[in-house]
Amino acid sequence: MTDDEGTSISETPQARLARKLNLLLDLYEAGGAESLTYPEISKHMSQRGTPLSRSRWAYMRSGDGSMATDTALLRNLAEFFGMDRDYLLDDAGEIPRLVEAQLELLRSLRESRVRNFAARQLHGISPETLEKLRKVIDDRGTRKE
């Protein structure tokens, strides 16, 4: 069962935090940046007086373990990703408009990657078949909305 935001109603606070963190990482990379590494995040957190161990970062991203409740750490992480400093503290699961817009962009980019991959892999197929495949991909993308 899901709510209006598309999140599981039975989702734990740890899983909600993990979903938000992983979404921020996806958006960071979709913005044209290379994959963000733990040392970059760790350095930023340490510079702001909120050190973050590799294991804690892994638990936070996976949704396992105890809930991260360090307010300063969560605010610094949100700030690192350019979000409102309380974004990771809000347990309601609401997605700010900026993140929603970026998420739509990310979906479009992923769909574009699928189209590009298919175009590269499907050489030698008739134009009619390619058109049918494109229509299926386009229809699938509009059904999610």
Fold and architecture overview:
With 145 residues, this protein is an all-alpha fold. The protein has 6 helices and no strands. It is elongated, with a radius of gyration of 19 Å. The chain starts with 12 loop residues before the first helix and ends with a helix.
Helical content stands at 55-70%
- What's the story with the biggest beta sheet? none
What is the straight-line distance between the termini?
A: 17 Å
Structural class: mainly alpha
Topology, number of strands: 0
The share of residues in extended strands comes to: under 5%
Task: Give the overall shape.
Answer: elongated
**Mean residue pLDDT:** 78
Query: What string, H for helix and E for strand, traces the elements in order?
Result: HHHHHH
Could you list the spans in which at least 5 consecutive residues all have pLDDT below 50?
A: 1-8
Write a brief structural summary:
Helix content is 61%, strand content 0%.
List keywords for this structure.
mainly alpha, 145 residues
Helices and strands, with pairings:
Blueprint: H1 13-30, H2 38-47, H3 54-62, H4 71-80, H5 97-121, H6 127-143
Helix pairs in contact: 1-3, 1-5
